Amino acid sequence: MLIAIDGPAGAGKSTVARELARVLRFTYLDSGAMYRCVALLALAEPAREPGELARGARIELHGTHPGEPQRVLLDGRDVTDAIRVPAVSDAASLVAADPGVREALLVKQRELLAHGDWVAEGRDIGTVVAPDAELKVFLTASEQERARRRAAQLGAAPEQVLAEQSVRDERDRARTHAPLRAAPGAVSIDTSRLDAQEVVQRIAALARSYS
Q1: How many structural domains compose the chain?
Q2: Which of 59-73, 121-135, 163-177 shows the lowest per-residue confidence on average (mean pLDDT)?
Q3: CA separation for the pair 189, 204 (Å, rounded)
Q4: pLDDT tens digits for 193-203?
């Protein structure tokens, strides 16, 4: 079974998806980490085409199984922490608009998801990567709540995060290739007033009803 979880930054996708995978004993895929890897490469080699970098990148996700902390390796180097800095987050939104990058990572993601039970999260899992997923969920939350969560995570000022978030949201929604939107048939959940465990319980109940 494949559970696709999409939504904007700060909606709780990563936290919910990791815990859901643990509860259901599924494998977890953080597609955003793959775009962040390409962004890290693009920042280091700005003269090269992002699509070329994506095609040549060897991205490995270690610890994808329940209860294991996930580490991200890029060409054999552990970049788990390096891909989470604000500069890489901003660059990831830019490279994600590149059709060459999306095409390259689409192939890698579909190869991973071809076998087994998965909880995959991102911004286009249900719409592009796995439109035939048995369960598609779109998580959202108010702009203020998403900014508050991101600010707490990054140790930044909420006002600054909100301003940057608005720019990124618009970029993700307006891009030509795989814009951010809920997939047809997706279950929408507003997490503004819910904690992660409540969201996990809701999705787990849906997953069990589908099985």
Answers
A1: 1
A2: 59-73
A3: 13
A4: 999 999 999 99
